[in-house]
Amino acid sequence: GYVMNAVRTIRRELKGEVPLIGFSGSPWTLATYMVEGGSSKAFTVIKKMMYADPQALHALLDKLAKSVTLYLNAQIKAGAQAVMIFDTWGGVLTGRDYQQFSLYYMHKIVDGLLRENDGRRVPVTLFTKGGGQWLEAMAETGCDALGLDWTTDIADARRRVGNKVALQGNMDPSMLYAPPARIEEEVATILAGFG
Fold first, then answer.
1. What GO terms are given for molecular function (predicted)?
2. What is the pLDDT of residues 44-53, one digit of tens each?
């Protein structure tokens, strides 16, 4: 398909100078767009489904987890050297609901991914926007790295997960509007926090 041809072409054009990272939305995030009909501020439609008909939502999330696993594996076979699962809307859930309706399905995906291709390990990164309170549970999925949003203190994240996984991210994207010297300061602060 189109995406896999794009992955192959980009990988070839990169000539090994930069790693190519494949990605997908998480089942929960994809389901929010499907059920809500687009982006949402309150997520009332999917939350109503979650509370009123959890079996239907679990059936949808299971199908999405299988599809995302196939999609990411196809990206890996086409040349992606690492993959990332973006759980953009996991942070809108309670801790219990996050475990049941989001993390559980990301764990299933991690378990089903190709972890080696072309003789190299394929790292997997999980990212949950607003999910800093669940880092320990995320690190237990078998992923290699956790993507952190700018609301998570990086030094605290490192303390909590130790060296079990790599940490990635943490800069507020709006910082890129700052003058270059200010961006450099922020990057230095983040790097110092990595430990």
1. uroporphyrinogen decarboxylase activity
2. 999 999 999 9
